[in-house]
Design brief:
Strand content: 15-25%
Number of strands: 13
Order of helices and strands: EEEEEHEHEEEHEHEHEHEHHHH
Shape: globular
Bound molecules: NADP nicotinamide-adenine-dinucleotide phosphate
Number of helices: 10
CATH superfamily: NADP-dependent oxidoreductase domain
Largest sheet: 7 strands, parallel
CATH architecture: Alpha-Beta Barrel
Strand order of the largest sheet: 3-6-7-10-11-12-13
CATH topology: TIM Barrel
Number of domains: 1
Structural class: alpha/beta
Distance between the termini: 32 Å
């Protein structure tokens, strides 16, 4: 019998044997907070954090997004504690390109030494011999994609891939030009950028990636640290007997078949609510009312 999470369908990362359910889980929210320092230190409730990870996988999630700079190290250590030895078919996607300052800031870590060290940190903290997928996170601007060559950094990751430390490579927070540059050097299996119902700058990129069979993984699918709030969204959700967060996720699933979801939460209550979105189908006339919320570049 299909698990609820599998109702969202699956997607095979291009050129790989990795097939993941489109409904995944993003682990960043599991790390703690220390005043203004977000994603910092131990979780508010360690037992709950472990339970969230275990319930996600038990419910059919087989794509978990993480990074060793969440915490730092905390999120990966929680994943290891909750799930190691990892079940067959679980794909853990991590990212490199940043490190954390003592003040909680997000600092570019783009040198060869930084990247090699980050790969080894991830391998150690996740306790694996090879990382399934590593996203290179562009840091020309911490706030959004900004132009700048990443040839040197992609070349380093490609070397580590040849050494067997990385299975597949993706990109995060990138422009179409950076994607094209990277694809001239190595196969790219996924792009992880900021996108959701109200933040639609990547509409064109998503369609281009869909044509090439590359996964698009929106971060902040629910709006991030300040979840989406919209009277229209709430009204539409109520009319469909769902919550606004479920509609935001179902909308992404229907937006394009190459979109993979990694909603983040630190609670099992929200996890259950989010996973239920895998079985929602928004009727086309309702989609037409949802689309204008984000001033889309494209209607669908
Ligand atoms: N590549 C990058 O630069 C980048 C940047 C940011 C994030 N990411 C990745 O993307 C993943 C997703 O992003 P995100 O977790 O920051 O943002 P998100 O999924 O858009 O939203 C998470 C926020 O929504 C709340 N939430 C979750 N489910 C909810 C529900 N059903 N009802 C009400 N509130 C709910 C969470 O609080 P609770 O904990 O209370 O549920 C949390 O505050 C992260 O886990 C991370 O792996 C990548």
């Amino acid at each position: 019998m299909l698990q609820q999470t599998q109702l969202a369908g699956s997607f095979t990362l291009p050129g790989t044997a990795m097939s993941v359910n489109r409904m995944g889980y993003g682990a960043m929210q599991l790390a703690g907070r220390d005043g203004d320092k977000l994603v910092w230190g131990p979780p508010r409730d360690r037992e709950e954090a472990i339970a969230v990870l275990q319930e996600a996988v038990a419910s059919g999630v087989n794509h978990i997004d993480t990074s060793d700079y969440y915490g730092p190290h905390v999120t990966n250590q929680l994943i290891k504690q909750a799930l190691h030895p990892y079940p067959d078919g679980l794909v853990i996607v991590t990212k490199v390109g940043s490190r954390r300052g003592e003040d909680g800031s997000w600092i570019p870590a783009f040198s060869r030494e930084d990247l090699v060290a980050a790969i080894h940190d991830n391998l150690r903290n996740l306790e694996v011999d090879a990382l399934d997928v590593v996203n290179l996170r562009s840091m020309f601007s911490v706030h959004g994609p900004a132009e700048g060559s990443m040839e040197e950094q992609i070349t380093v990751l490609a070397e580590l891939q040849r050494k067997g430390l990385i299975r597949h490579i993706g990109l995060s927070n990138v422009t179409p030009a950076q994607l094209a540059e990277a694809r001239r050097i190595v196969a790219i299996v996924c792009v992880q950028n900021h996108y959701n119902l109200v933040h639609r700058a990547d509409d064109g990129l998503i369609d281009d990636l869909a044509r090439d069979g590359i996964a698009y993984v929106p971060f902040f699918p629910l709006g991030g640290f300040t979840p989406l709030q919209s009277a229209e969204l709430s009204d539409i959700a109520a009319s469909l007997g769902a919550t606004p967060m479920q509609i935001a996720l179902a909308w992404l699933l229907q937006r394009s078949p190459n979109i993979l979801l990694i909603p983040g939460t630190s609670s099992r209550k929200h996890l259950r609510e989010n996973l239920q979105a895998a079985q929602l189908r928004i009727p086309s006339e309702v989609l037409a009312n949802l689309n204008p919320i984000g001033k889309p570049e494209k209607e669908f």
